[in-house]
TrEMBL record:
This is Glial cells missing transcription factor 2. Residues 3-158 form the GCM domain. Keywords: Developmental protein, DNA-binding, Nucleus, Transcription, Transcription regulation. Signal peptide: none annotated. One of its GO terms (cellular component) is nucleus. The lineage of its organism: Eukaryota, Metazoa, Chordata, Craniata, Vertebrata. Residues 139-167 are annotated as: Disordered. InterPro entries: GCM, GCM_dom_sf, GCM_large, GCM_small, Tscrpt_reg_GCM.
Length: 473
DNA sequence: CGATGCGGGGACG
DNA sequence: CGTCCCCGCATCG
């Protein structure tokens, strides 16, 4: 169906039978047709950092991928995670961004350009035609996913709020605290409960790990209430869910060798504001082994925004589950594509070198990644070899954790309130509560990115994940 | 401050 | 020409 048209065709399919659900992380040579009502599509949004490219064709909007910003030393954060920041779209801002230092090792940050399309950046094309928005992507991202736009925005908003009161010393303290806690909590959902909200309410967003297949989940009915936001979230949500499966093939691309560890990709972004984001590995197995960081989108949990996640959590709480189901068709298409792409010749070469760190021992079961709003996203991986089916298995394993998650919900949730907007919808909400005010401080002084776990977010995410599992079951 | 779009221009093939 | 990229301008949140 999707190959029946090309973005450059003089005439595109009229009145498509159905519209695709918004895909936050399109990858590979894929095409989608969104409803002109879809806000994310209207805004030409993408999880990838895409910048406008002049193609001298006002009918077709072309955007090219900026890649991802990582630590020049490719250092591994305490938990085996790596920074994967979203490149600023604005050239000027990007240059500034690259002058900042890695919060973990103080080395410089590095922009990994995207060369997934015949050596050129992956390109995305958008074209509005009647009631449909045609989307076409060309190329396979040869780099890890950066933090999603929503995560970035959440981080910023959080920063703004907190900045006023933040102090460096406090920030540092917070950071330390988080780290310590982080360690303590290794890997268990339960731990999450224990985690204090370091950041302040605002900053952290938790990212769940999307590595496993996520069954369709019901969406909160309220989503429908706010079409716009709801759609957005749902879209991203779906994307996240789908991505894991779809992209499984890609893992190889990023990480050539099969490893069994968990990988965590944590984009922590802390530029001026630092939010420590705490993330935990939900899996039972801690990441003690060195987790290899992979860039695989699939694995990256980051794809899910805190919002999304929170959304999930909410949905659960609310008992709205219907929504999830809808993601399906998108998945299918993706899945197919993925398979096709699995063999991509691209990247495999460089990427590994750049990104691949020592492989980590395989972790076992579940992996959850929690990210701060800021953007730390953890990615847990399974062995690179993992396939969809494998993921499924994991999922099952993970299911065990569901109860944990629920506990979380009970525990934390209350604390986290959903204020006017949905957490899922708006990142800011997440931040608003911060149980521990102290943490919220961000360090600005150095412009480093911090990462830390966020309780609220974590909570949400966990739930979301749990949810997923349940559904899957 | 940045994200986005737009569009002129230059460099290449 | 077509493809890419750079740059400035403008709008908007």
């Amino acid at each position: 169906m999707k190959l029946t048209w090309d973005i450059n065709d003089s005439k595109l399919p009229q009145e498509p039978k159905h519209f695709d659900d918004f895909q936050e992380w399109p990858d590979d040579y894929v095409q989608f047709i969104y409803s002109s009502e879809e806000k994310n599509a209207q805004r030409h949004l993408s999880g990838w950092a895409m910048r406008n490219t002049n193609n001298h064709n006002c009918q077709i909007l072309k955007k090219s991928c900026l890649g991802v910003v990582v630590c020049a030393r490719n250092c591994t954060l305490p938990e085996g995670i790596k920074l994967q920041l979203r490149p600023a779209i604005c050239d000027k801002a990007r240059q500034k961004q690259q002058k900042k230092i890695c919060p973990n090792c103080n080395s410089t940050l590095e922009l990994i350009p995207c060369r997934g399309h015949s050596g050129y950046p992956v390109t995305n094309f958008w074209r509005l035609d009647g009631k449909a928005i045609f989307f076409q992507a060309k190329g396979v991202h040869d780099h890890p996913r950066p933090e999603s736009k929503s995560e970035t925005e959440a981080r910023r908003s959080a920063v703004k709020k907190q900045m006023p009161s933040s102090h460096l010393s406090q920030k540092k303290q917070l950071l330390e605290l988080e780290m310590g806690r982080y360690h303590e909590s290794d890997g268990h959902f339960n731990n999450i409960h224990h985690l204090p909200c370091l950041e302040g309410s605002e900053k952290f967003s938790v990212v769940s790990d999307t590595s496993f297949p996520i069954p369709a989940q019901p969406y909160p009915s309220f989503l429908s209430t706010d079409p716009y936001k709801a759609t957005y979230d749902s879209a991203s949500f779906q994307a996240n869910m789908e991505s894991p499966f779809q992209k499984c093939p890609n893992p190889r691309i990023y990480v050539p060798r099969p490893t069994c560890g968990y990988e965590f990709a944590v984009p922590g972004y802390v530029s001026s504001s630092s939010y420590p984001a705490l993330y935990k590995d939900l899996t039972n197995t801690p990441m003690e082994a060195d987790p290899i960081i992979r860039n695989d989108p699939q694995y990256s949990v980051s794809s899910l925004n805190a919002h999304d996640k929170s959304l999930d959590g909410f949905s659960k709480h609310h008992g709205l589950k219907q929504f999830m189901g809808k993601t399906d068709y998108g998945d299918k298409s993706d899945y197919v594509q993925i398979q096709a792409s699995s063999n991509h010749p691209y990247y495999s070469g460089d990427y590994p070198c750049r990104y691949a760190s020592p492989s980590t021992p395989a972790a076992s079961a579940l992996q959850t990644v929690i990210t701060t709003t800021t953007k730390v996203s953890y990615q847990a991986y399974k062995p690179s070899v993992v396939k969809y089916s494998d993921n499924v298995c994991d999922t099952k394993t993970l299911l065990n954790c569901s109860h944990l998650a629920e506990n979380h919900s009970g525990t934390f949730y209350p604390g986290l309130k959903v204020q006017g907007d949905w957490c899922g919808v708006k990142p800011t909400l997440l931040y608003e509560h911060d149980p521990t005010s102290t943490k919220s401080e961000c360090f600005e002084a150095v412009d480093t990115y911090q990462y830390g776990p966020n309780l609220g977010n974590n909570y949400v995410e966990h739930e979301g994940q749990i949810f997923r599992f349940e559904n899957g079951e």
